[in-house]
Amino acid sequence: MNRNSRQVFDVGRIRQETGIRHVEYHAQLASTNATAVELAGLLLDVAPALVLTGRQTAGRGRGANAWWSTTGALTFSLLIDGESTGLPREQRGMISLAAGAAVRDVLDALLGTCTAMIKWPNDVYVDQRKICGILTEQTTRQTRSAIIIGIGINVNNSLADAPGEIREAATSLFDVTGASFDLSALLIDVANQLDYRISQLVHRDAALIRDINSWSLLSDRFVTISAGPEIHAGRCEGIDGDGCLLLRNASGAVTKHLSGIVQQWK
Ligand code: BTN
Predict the structure, then answer these.
(1) Is 63 left (phi over 0), alpha (psi -120 to 50) or beta?
(2) Which of 36, 48, 70, 165 has the most crowded CB, counting CB atoms within 10 A?
């Protein structure tokens, strides 16, 4: 079987085997996050709702970044209702981390000898290369708020087809294992694990942060992050209960960072 031949989604099965109430499937989309934002007013009525595509042509990344993908990758956005999820506003910044934990669990179970790691604040890595990126966005319609969790996982696509700088920095399940995977089954597992990790967040279950710290790529590394115009560097001492990255700087003080872009780690 060709590695990209399992790209057709079983939408009925996805609805049956997850808590997702509506699947908005398009063979091709520019960005599932952009479509979820555009349709948020309608999708809030049927949330949790999934925007899914077989091929994303202009995926959005964090900041000004783009997300490269081809057929065989899993690219989707889950729209949840901010109010009915029961997630306090101050916890919402941690959704990407919770989603990273969910994806990590699922990928790790498929990987055999390799280990999937969470890279604060919103990536999953295997073999020091990025395999999944997460972009969480919020939008409001009248009094309602929609949380859009956009997830891109390199599955049956190969990074051999990617532009140079991405090829060096990223990987896929196919590239790591040489096997191809059922995208519907993978999506179902991620959606259910995401449900579990978000409920841990809602209930402030300490096990969520404990698990994130167990699989934190940056811990014990010397990390440099940028936060707007500021640069912070230090040895990473993990992630605290609010999802902040803890860095011990040169003078021995620990600084807490709720957000930022990791520039390097070694
Ligand atoms: C990042 O690493 O900067 C985040 C990448 C997020 C990519 C996913 S793919 C599905 C969803 N739709 C988008 O346009 N982006 C996210």
Answers:
(1) left
(2) 36
Ligand 1 pocket: which of 33, 136, 153 to mutate (most atoms within 8 A of CB) = 33
Q: What is the pLDDT of residues 25-69, one digit of tens each?
A: 999 999 999 999 999 999 999 999 999 999 999 999 998 889 998
- d(Cα 222, Cα 235) in Å, to the nearest integer? 4
Listed as ranges, residues in the chain with pLDDT below 70 are: 1-7
CA 253–ligand 1 middle distance (angstroms): 34
Q: What beta strand segments (E) does the chain contain?
A: 22-29, 49-56, 59-60, 66-67, 74-81, 116-119, 123-126, 129-141, 144-153, 222-227, 230-239, 245-248, 254-257, 261-265
Ligand 1 center from residue 76 Cα (angstroms): 8
- The protein residue with its alpha carbon nearest to ligand 1, atom 15, reads 60
Ligand 1 neighbour 73 (Cβ under 6 A) = no
Q: How far is the CA of 153 from the centre of ligand 1 (A)?
A: 9
- Rounded to two decimals, the pTM is 0.95
Handedness of CA 219, 220, 223, 228 (dihedral sign): positive
Counting from 1 in the atom list of ligand 1, the atom nearest the Cα of 69 is 9
Cβ–Cβ < 8 Å for 233, 223: yes
Helix, strand, coil distribution of the chain in percent, nearest 5: 30, 35, 35
Q: What distance in angstroms lies between residue 247's CA and the mean position of ligand 1's atoms? A: 27
Contact 118, 101 (CB under 8 A): yes
Q: Rounded distance, CA 175 to CA 173, Å? A: 6
